[in-house]
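Hey, I'm writing a tutorial for new members on how sequence and structure tokens pair up, and I'd like a real worked example in the thread rather than a made-up one. If someone can provide the structure for the chain below, I'll link this post from the tutorial.
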Amino acid sequence: MAGSRHDNVPAELIGFLARYDPAIQSLALGLRRVVLDTIAPCHEYIFQMRSQVMLLYGATARIMADGICQIAIFRHHVTLVFPDGIDLEDPTRMLRGTGRTMRHVRVTASSDLARPELRSLLRQARAMAGLVEQPRRGRRDVVTRVKTSETPTPARVRGRR
């Protein structure tokens, strides 16, 4: 996968991942590469939320409504989440979860990234989102947006004495 067309990692994502172990950073970036290589063209939204970094993928800019999958990066593992995972065919039982619709795959080793079942789940989720056509050469594959964790500080008002 090295040298794939999606090796262009946003600097903000590298910054978000800096607090994680190198092994988790590698898993996260490797899983991102697998996702993009499998489902592009797509939209990607990256942000930091409390103790994890989230990467959301959708068929359109309306990522929550038209979601394909999500990557959640935790301290000791990375999880690939399928919002409509209950509808995916999973003969090898990779998917975990007991919710009404959402299912996930826990990625703990680089060998997990090479499993063909992972790509099969991604292709199914992509098709469910209405993306069936592969991109033409020269077309932009991924539209990435990053939400930085800048918190606006309130302006100080000095009172007169």
